[in-house]
Structure formats: C-alpha cells, structure tokens
Amino acid sequence: MKDNELRGLFLKKYYEHRKEGFYQPEVADFTISLEESEIVRISEQLDQHDLINWESLNTFQQEKGHGEITALGIDVIEGEKASPVEIKYQNITISSSSNIQIGDQNIQDIKISIENIISSIESSSFSPQEKNEAKSKLKEFLKHPVVASILGATSSTLIGML
User: Fold this and answer.
1) pLDDT digits (tens, 9 = 90+) for 13-63
2) Deepest of 9, 23, 76, 134, by most Cβ within 10 A of its Cβ?
C-alpha cells in the first residue's frame, strides 16, 4: 500500500477516535498487515502536515506513540478543506441496493461467520470424511488469491483453524 493510501487510512482512524483525545494506534487496529514502524512513520507524516498532533513514546524495545486529530485533519476528513499532502481514500458507490455493510468491521464479520461455519461443521453429525471434505473446500476457498487479498492476514488465521 502506498503512503498516500496509508495516510488516508490512518487519518480516518484518528478521526474515529477524535472524542477520546490521544489515540495510540496498534497493529491490531488495522485490517491490513502493518509493522509498528509504519504506524510511527505515517503518523509522523500526518503530524508534519498538521493533520494530527503526534507524540513519540519511543523506548529501548520499540517505537510507539500517540496522537490526536487536529481541526485541520477533521476538516480534511469531512471534506471542508483540502489536504496539504496527498491522501487517498477508498471510495465506494452503491445504488439500488439494500442490506449493505461498509466499514472496518466487514473483515471481522466475515471472520466470525467463517468461524461459525467451522464450528458447525465440527459439531455436525456428518461422518469424519464428510467433515474433512467440507473443511478442505473451505480451506481451498480461503486460499484463493482474490479471497486472500480481500481478507489479508485474516485468511491465514482462518486457514490455521481448519
């Protein structure tokens, strides 16, 4: 993922946590694969452009920090002002549809649903051979490149459960 996309993702996270004051982003807060150093690097970029106030909390063991979105950052997210640095957001347009869910919780919902399927397979009255066949097909589905790219690290976690 490019920095301009990461900046958009991070700025949205700070916006979501704006009422809490300082927010300390964690790798687990994101549905994409990140390292702690990327959280610090992108947050420092947002701070350099006055979109967040960032405080580094570096220790000997690891790089961390916390930040809060600024008024400019809020205006950028809400579309009131242009960003001083390029930021890309994922935009989705939906028309004539119902029961649509868009947001960061989608991957979590999928994970929970697939965990329920695995549990139902295990507790079913089918033969062990039929259960193994069903789990094998589910594993094949989760390994498909399109599915794996959508689910990210969640795909590997679910495959490990099978």
Assistant:
1) 999 999 998 999 888 888 888 888 899 999 999 999 999 999 988 776 677
2) 76
For residue 108, the one-letter residue type is Q
Q: What structural domains does the chain harbor?
A: 3-77 (1.10.10.10), 105-161 (no CATH)
Q: Which two tokens stand for residue 11?
A: 């700025």
Per DSSP, the three-state class of 22 is coil
C-alpha to C-alpha distances, 97 to 94, 101, 108, 113, nearest whole angstrom: 7, 11, 22, 22
Residue 141 is encoded by which pair of tokens? Answer: 């589905």
Looking at the DSSP bridge assignments, the partners of residue 66 are: 55
Distances, alpha carbon 80 to alpha carbons 2, 12, 17, 93, in Å: 24, 15, 19, 20
Quick check: pTM over 0.70? no
